[in-house]
């Protein structure tokens, strides 16, 4: 029943009440799992626990999901579904990320689900009895996808037409869920925006965490700290992530694109990514960029010729070599590797911003229709078309026949097709194993 303020949907999970303004219906912070403890695997939420669900208020501190749909959308409407996984270095973020709000999607007849998951050590520390390649934060998202399969029809969505969309850490999660050992058929295609895998596994960094904790890195030990001294655990994590400050401290490691299921993938990056991070900007402002690139390139993943990479960087942007290395190391190398190795069709898109740098996250409002010029935004048109099942209108990436990239200028909406925009990155960074 609907009264232009409250709307109730009945689905397998129970009766879920959200709010509607007559055009868009929002359902906030819907629980989708049972988490027995912060470092325990989540379980599917029994239906009998969810007969009545109040989804009228956003609860950002919960592991939950949100749904945004056209008001009045009914079962069998078969609307495309976007499942969005937020970024945040595997350390922060919420299922209420307003930068990717689902209202424009709803106006275009698309249902949007934002899935929250556990971050930091709760989501990405690994223990001796964990299965290989298993991370609780990613398993949380798997359960969220299962919830979508069981319930999204009641919101007007088509469970057979789901696009998994992630940005930064969320793109990393999306690609991990597409591995053959994780894929369960819950989505048909992926949009991965600036993925960011750590260069080392948790096992390789476990010693540094043990050092800052002063305790064993076990499920029992961390659970006790979380319950009795959460401030101690928080401070220890801050020290741990500082030690690994040139990289993501946590996250799934050992990416191999050949392990992906054969799905269509739209891979995107921004031209400048983390170009403007304070540390890199300070180094470059002092004229120390070239020296620091020579010093840190190997530590940051460059396996080819450092001299050749530095020459290419200086030709592109002589004022900001360290800024370039940070963005290439954190994101653009993974975009390149995924494009080279994925077994299914892959399309590459790169965002620039005219004379200004196109920084990490700059593309989100354009793809989600939240930029001021969204009605004529080429990025938005690309996003909506792909979600509806339409292949992009340029050739898929193919190392044998051509590495085409559509370059979208978010400053003036110009679009040009370019050849091999990630060549410099591909030649410098060898695949991580």
From TrEMBL:
Query: Gene3D superfamilies attached here?
Result: alpha/beta hydrolase (3.40.50.1820)
Which keywords describe this protein according to UniProt? Hydrolase
What's an example of a GO molecular-function annotation for this chain?
A: hydrolase activity
> PROSITE patterns of this UniProt entry?
CARBOXYLESTERASE_B_1
Give the main EC class. hydrolase
Q: Which residues form the Carboxylesterase type B domain?
A: 61-195
EC number, UniProt record: 3.1.1.-
Q: What family, per the record? A: Belongs to the type-B carboxylesterase/lipase family.
| The protein's name in its UniProt record | Carboxylic ester hydrolase
Say which species the protein is native to: Corynebacterium marinum DSM 44953
């Amino acid at each position: 029943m609907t009264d232009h303020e409250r709307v109730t949907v009945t689905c397998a999970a129970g009766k879920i009440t959200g709010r509607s303004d007559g055009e868009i219906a929002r359902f906030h912070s819907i629980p989708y799992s049972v988490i027995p403890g912060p470092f325990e695997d989540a379980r599917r939420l029994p239906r009998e626990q969810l007969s009545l669900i109040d989804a009228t208020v956003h609860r950002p501190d919960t592991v939950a999901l949100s749904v945004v749909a056209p008001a009045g959308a009914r079962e069998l409407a078969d609307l495309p579904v976007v499942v969005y996984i937020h970024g945040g270095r595997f350390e922060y973020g919420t299922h209420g990320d307003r930068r990717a709000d689902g209202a424009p999607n709803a106006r275009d007849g698309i249902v949007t689900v934002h899935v929250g998951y556990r971050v930091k050590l709760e989501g990405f520390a690994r223990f001796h009895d964990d299965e290989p390649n298993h991370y609780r934060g990613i398993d949380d998202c798997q359960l969220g996808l299962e919830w979508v399969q069981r319930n999204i029809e009641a919101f007007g969505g088509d469970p057979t037409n789901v696009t998994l969309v992630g940005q930064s850490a969320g793109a990393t999660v999306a690609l991990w869920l597409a591995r053959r050992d994780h894929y369960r058929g819950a989505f048909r295609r992926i949009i991965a925006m600036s993925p960011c895998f750590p260069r080392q596994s948790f096992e390789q960094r476990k010693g540094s965490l043990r050092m800052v904790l002063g305790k064993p890195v076990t499920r029992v030990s961390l659970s006790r700290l979380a319950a009795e001294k959460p401030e101690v655990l928080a401070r220890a994590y801050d020290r741990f992530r500082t030690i690994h400050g040139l990289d993501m401290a946590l996250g799934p490691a050992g990416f191999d694109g050949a392990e992906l299921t054969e799905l269509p993938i739209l891979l995107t990056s921004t031209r400048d990514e983390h170009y403007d991070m304070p540390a890199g900007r300070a180094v470059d402002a002092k004229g120390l960029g070239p020296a620091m690139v020579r010093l840190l390139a190997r530590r940051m993943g460059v396996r080819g010729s450092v001299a050749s990479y530095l020459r290419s960087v200086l030709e592109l942007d002589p004022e900001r070599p360290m800024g370039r290395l940070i963005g290439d190391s954190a994101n653009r190398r993974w975009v390149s590797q995924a494009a080279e190795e994925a077994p299914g069709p892959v399309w590459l898109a790169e965002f620039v911003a005219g004379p200004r740098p196109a920084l990490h996250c700059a593309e989100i409002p354009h793809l989600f229709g939240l930029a001021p010029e969204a009605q004529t935004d080429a990025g938005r048109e690309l996003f909506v078309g792909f979600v509806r099942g339409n292949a992009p209108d340029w050739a898929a990436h193919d190392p044998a026949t051509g590495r085409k990239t559509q370059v979208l200028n978010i400053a003036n909406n110009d679009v040009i097709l370019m050849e091999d925009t990630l060549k410099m990155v591909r030649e410098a960074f060898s695949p991580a194993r």
